[in-house]
Amino acid sequence: MKEEKIVLGMGTDFPLDGKLLIPESEKPVPAVVFVHGSGSSNMDEKVMKMTPFKDLAEGLAKKGIASLRYDKRSFVHGRKMIKAGSLTVKEEVIEDAVAAANLLKNDGRIDSEKVFIIGHSMGAMLAPRIDAEGGNFRGLILMAGTLAKLEEVLFRQLDEMKNGKSKIMSWVASAQDKKFRKSFENLYEISDEEAKKRKYAGGVDLYYFKEMGLHPAEKYLENIEKPVLVMQGSGDLQVSKKDFEGYKNLLGEKENVSFKLYEGLNHCFVPALYDDISKATKEFSVERHIGEDVISDIAGWIFENC
User: Fold this and answer.
1) Where are any strands of DSSP class E within 23-120?
2) Which of 106, 123, 154, 299 could form a disulfide with 63 if both were Cys (CB 3.0 to 4.6 A apart)?
């Protein structure tokens, strides 16, 4: 395989370093674009000792599939983005993912008709919208996603922490829960300007959540005809089996949609160590890598749908 450094968005206000990993081939190969989860992270989607995008990129390259991964805009340009005004996922995620898809499609070594998207966590939540708003992918791979609104996921995690085994974390979560729920009251009834004035945890304004919530994944998926692969680990503490079942309830009767639940794997698709969300720091502080089974399933599905 060959690894090339690229700059996504060169010449714009938000250039991003990235890597194109491409297998040696005499003919154009299929490719994937990786889309990060929530928060700021680098091109490997590094979470403490976990590097899921690096694992997947290298594993897929060995199977004959190219990939493009890049630093998230908020990871590199966070301060500049805040100064620019109200932030939405369009500026933070969608624009760059569409640019990445176009970069691959304009590379002669890539089969432009066989570019897929792999969205992880919040990236999975946004992947259907990215596809509809210019990505135009061959198919969608949704890893550890949910059909719930982002704020609903946050509150559900707070509830789990309140009922967790750590008394300290339970106390902190209880204090946060009351404050946060109040700030989100009537979010979809208030004006956009009012939503921009309210802050979540003193940081991003609530218009970020409102704008995303007004573009639910369900809206894009309910009539989708292109191939979709929904993947989740049973040991995932960030999303739950209810999220996986939500996708099944919406898409289960569609022949173009496949589902894969991995026993005992966590949010990063490596073996889970704990069953308590309050131990997330410990969960991701032990180095593990995505296994061959997950990589083979993704590669096999991509080739089946080329």
Assistant:
1) 29-35, 66-70, 110-120
2) 299
Catalytic residue positions? Answer: 121, 236, 267
The answer as to CATH 1.10.287.70 being correct for domain 2-147+216-304 is no
**Contact of 96 with 8, CB cutoff 8 Å:** yes
Tokens of 190: 């208030």
Do residues 151 and 184 make contact, with C-beta atoms less than 8 angstroms apart?
yes
Q: Give tens-digit pLDDT for 169-192.
A: 676 667 677 777 888 889 999 999
Please state the pTM of the whole predicted model.
Answer: 0.94
What per-residue string of b and e applies to 246-267 under the rule 16 or more CB within 10 Å gives b?
bbeebbeeeeebbbbebeebbb
Confidence of residue 15 (pLDDT cuts 50, 70, 90): very high
Please report, for the chain, the start and end positions of each structural domain, with discontinuous segments joined by +. 2-147+216-304, 150-202
Reported as a pLDDT band with limits 50, 70 and 90, residue 168 is low
- The residue among 76, 63, 82 whose CA lies nearest residue 36 is 76
Query: What are 16's two structure tokens?
Result: 């991003």
Distance CA 259, CA 221 (A): 14
Q: Give the orientation angle of helix 52-62 with respect to helix 292-304, to 10 degrees.
A: 60
Residue 97 has pLDDT above 90, yes or no: yes
C-alpha span between 144 and 121 (Å, rounded): 5
Q: Is the pLDDT of residue 156 over 90?
A: no
- CB atoms under 10 Å from CB of 184, counted, come to 19
Which pair of structure tokens corresponds to residue 84?
A: 């620019």
Neighbours of 174 (CB within 10 A): 14
Q: Are 184 and 212 in contact (CB under 8 A)?
A: no
